[in-house]
Amino acid sequence: MIYGICNLSIIPVRILNCDKSEMINQLIYGDVFEILEEKEKWIKIKSMYDDYNGWIDNKQYFKVEDTNKLILNKPIYSLDLVEFIENNEKELFTIPIGSDISNTSLMNHSFDGKKISGKKDRHSIVNIAHSFLNSPYLWGGKTPFGIDCSGFTQMVYKINGYSLFRDAKDQATQGETLSFIEESEPGDLAFFNNENDEIIHVGIILKNNHIIHASGKVRIDRIDHSGIYNNDLNKHTHSLRYIKKII
User: Fold this and answer.
1) Within 81-238, where are the H helices?
2) Among 24, 103, 144, 159, which lies 20 to 30 A Cα-Cα from 48?
3) How much is the pTM?
4) Is-catalytic flag, 238?
5) Does 225 participate in catalysis according to the annotation?
6) Statement to judge: residues 110 and 142 lie in one domain
7) Which residue segment(s) compose the domain that 234 sits in?
8) Residue at a domain's end among 81, 116, 151
9) Catalytic annotation on 6?
10) Same domain, 54 and 85
């Protein structure tokens, strides 16, 4: 296997090997991936975190020459919304929250900011979720500068030491299904479906019948048996399918 590491703040992962192709995901600093295919200007990759495939620009990664030095199973994540990495030329560049800094030395980089590792509790999940509040919605996004609904839940759980799939429909297969909303606790995941019974949205349950989710922006709304009630629009916007307990 040939591995690479995202050595920039944020890079797009596209469905096709073309700059005009749809962005379906993002890699953020420190993300490790397997290189599946190489073309003149593009490489097809598979994320080691969630097995998500796509194409990235071949100028936007660090190729791992010595895989024995690669750390895969003990990630350490940056904790502030924005932090700094320093390269061997003493140049600084920003990285977003949730960047994996466990392989910085492999890239001749250094990090001296707040960090987090290991499995955390529900309180931490809720706190990290709140740190993304008002982040704009972006299809395929995974950072405070643009994030989609499943990218939001995945990143919050990732920073707290738990693995979720990339897409809402796949996250819905994880965890224990609850029978009633009254059984839920802050940190549980709520899933929402369309008229065809397809899972199209996900958010994180908060206390007092509220939910935090990415819809237009990361926002807090009320949730009831019908779904999400948006106070700005004075109507239900998402139909509740079920709630899952992950931890």
Assistant:
1) 122-131, 149-159, 168-171
2) 144
3) 0.95
4) no
5) no
6) no
7) 122-245
8) 116
9) no
10) yes
User: Of the listed 149, 210, 225, 236, which one is catalytic?
Assistant: 149
CATH code of 134's domain: 3.90.1720.10
Tens of pLDDT along 174-227?
999 998 899 999 999 999 999 999 999 999 999 999 999 999 999 999 999 999
Catalytic residue, from 123, 213, 225, 236: name it: 213
Task: Give CA separation, 181 vs 31, 42, 177, in Å.
Answer: 35, 46, 10
CA–CA dist 49, 24 (Å, integer): 15
Q: 66-70 — which CB contacts under 8 Å span 24+ positions?
A: 67/1, 67/3, 69/106, 70/3, 70/32, 70/103, 70/106
Domain end among 99, 116, 133: 116
> Under a CB-based contact definition with an 8 Å cutoff, are residues 102 and 164 in contact?
no
Distance between CA atoms of residues 245 and 247, nearest Å: 6
- Beta-bridged to residue 162, according to DSSP, are none
Residues of the chain with pLDDT under 70: none
CATH number of the domain that 58 lies in? 2.30.30.40
Residues 227, 150 share a domain: yes
- Spatial separation of the C-alpha atoms in residues 16 and 14, rounded to whole Å: 5
Same domain, yes or no, for 105 and 151? no
